[in-house]
Design brief:
heterodimer; A: mainly beta; 3-stranded antiparallel beta sheet; 43% strand; B: alpha/beta; 4-stranded mixed beta sheet; 11 strands; 19% strand
Chain lengths: 119, 378
């Protein structure tokens, strides 16, 4: 099995995804196999960080002291250019359909993907 | 064949000093009394979970506490769909001859047993531990995302969603056991504190203490019988990030399977008991199930269609939004109310005709679905 590329869930400034070498299925949640056909060792790659906003929700009531310090923060679902959907943070005025690009910001002790409107 | 022979329900709200087991016992005893059965008649126990008092073997903990030695027992965990999933399993256990009388029970002191933050935090863990939870989402945020997209695709407005909160409150005002008894208006919902936009405080169900139970039996014990006509499930994903498009969600799949299993159509349904953790949940499920056209559920609320005297009375006890939500027991109150309606015991809330009822439960973020048809038999 190939070495896993470090991404934001491991503290690196990167978003990664996997493509099945057998059936072509694209998945965001890292696995050692393809969730569509079961084939081993899907090919891993770093995403471009380009995408389109699928949905937003501005969180105004957080549940922990660490997250409360950031309120309000905008949670997004972004359809990434490579064909997978991910959850991230983003600018507060983003709307469905906006084209966005990813950066990274600290949040509650971790680095999280933060999308801004494409300039 | 299987029948729901007894139901039990505590008031929802604050039960200061009651444990999860206390609330389960109260509801279980009420359900047995309602069925006219003794503890020794129960040979199966299914129970939900308690976030306040988690245990790896809650069903046997409860059986020992309650004082019965069943031949079949375990807990079931499907989030908000757990109550109906347990009912479906009981139906099959009874119909296949494994059990004669299954006690289905859940209860939790979720309001007084832990802080509201602890509840919200515990529930947010249904998110993906690596790809979602570090972003600080809450359950309202998961549903806020869904609401934002649904409103965009189908032209639903925040004022439309508010109608469902107002309706559930109006129904709760006629039930003495409901957590909230003060009427609210669309303006109140719109002005309530933002939680996870577009959802505001009054778009969200509360955290409650409470317990609910039923007995599912092979034979009828009372004069009016409530028969489980048929049921089905669908599970499309766990995490909202991995959810399919709005037109491919599980409610449409499970209702299609339930209709096929029973030979019933939505036009046969006289009473509806639909999961309503948030206003958006209720709006979407009504439309997914075919109880309203796409984007038309709110207009039907305004026209009185889902009121007690309307063509399709809905959650006449006030639902999760206003009767209250104590975890697994929360949506079991929907079935208890349905049973009371079907057996003509709903007092001032009684509807004209509840001969065939449709129940639907949702767990996770529209992840797990159970659809069920009940039929009154004489």
């Amino acid at each position: 099995m190939s070495e896993r590329i470090a991404d934001w869930t491991k503290g690196e400034q990167a978003i990664t995804y996997q493509t099945c070498v057998v059936c072509g299925h694209i998945q965001y949640f890292h696995r050692a196999f393809c969730a569509a056909c079961g084939a081993a060792d899907p090919r891993e790659a770093q995403a471009s960080g380009k995408g389109t906003v699928y949905a937003t929700s501005l969180v105004c009531r957080a549940a922990t002291p660490e997250t409360r310090a950031h309120v309000p923060y905008n949670i997004l679902l972004v359809d990434c250019a490579e064909g997978f959907r991910m959850m991230a943070h983003g600018e507060k005025d983003l709307a469905i359909g906006d084209e966005v690009t990813a950066g990274f910001k600290p949040f509650a002790g971790k680095l999280v993907p933060f999308f801004a409107k494409k300039r | 064949m299987s029948f729901i022979t007894g139901v039990g329900l505590t008031p929802y709200g604050k039960h200061e000093g009651s444990s999860s087991l206390d609330l389960m016992r109260k509801a279980a005893q009420a359900a047995l009394d309602d069925a006219g059965l003794k503890r020794s008649d129960v040979d199966g126990i299914l129970c939900g979970y308690s976030t306040v008092s988690p245990h790896i073997m809650l069903a046997t903990v409860f059986a020992e506490h309650f004082g019965i030695r069943p031949s079949y027992a375990h807990a079931v965990q499907v989030g908000g769909a757990t109550g109906l999933a347990m009912t479906m399993l009981s139906h099959h256990l009874v119909a296949s001859g494994v059990c004669r009388n299954v006690l289905v029970v859940a209860g939790e002191n979720r309001l007084t047993g832990q802080s509201r933050d602890a509840s919200i935090q515990a529930l947010a863990q249904v998110g993906h531990p690596d790809y979602e939870v570090p972003l600080g989402p809450t359950i309202p945020a998961y549903y806020g995302l869904v609401a934002n997209r649904y409103m965009h695709e189908y032209g639903v407005t925040e004022a439309d969603l508010a109608e469902f909160a107002v309706l559930m409150r109006a129904h709760a005002c006629t039930h003495p056991g409901a957590q909230f008894q003060d009427p609210i208006t669309v303006a109140d919902v719109m002005a309530s504190k933002p939680v996870a936009l577009p959802l505001k405080l009054l778009d969200c169900c509360p955290v409650s203490d409470g317990g609910a139970a039923f007995v599912i039996s092979r034979e009828r014990t009372g004069e009016a019988g409530v028969r489980i006509r048929g049921c089905a499930q669908a599970h499309t994903h766990q995490h909202v990030t991995a959810a399919p498009g709005l037109s491919e969600l599980g409610a449409e799949i499970s209702i299609a399977r339930a209709k096929e299993a029973t030979g019933l159509a939505i036009s046969d349904v006289r009473y509806a008991a639909i999961y309503d953790s948030f206003t958006i949940t209720l709006a979407m499920l009504l439309e997914d199930l075919g109880l309203a056209g796409r984007g038309e559920a709110a207009a039907r609320v305004r026209a009185g269609h889902f009121s007690r005297d309307g063509a399709m009375p809905l959650n006449t006890h006030g639902g999760l939004l206003s009767y209250g939500h104590c975890g697994v027991g929360g949506a079991m109150a929907h079935l208890v109310e349905t049973h009371l309606q079907m057996t003509g015991r709903a007092a001032s809330r009684q509807v004209r005709d509840a001969s065939i009822a449709l129940l639907h439960g949702d767990g996770g973020v529209l992840s797990s679905h159970v659809s069920m048809f009940l039929e009154r038999v004489r």
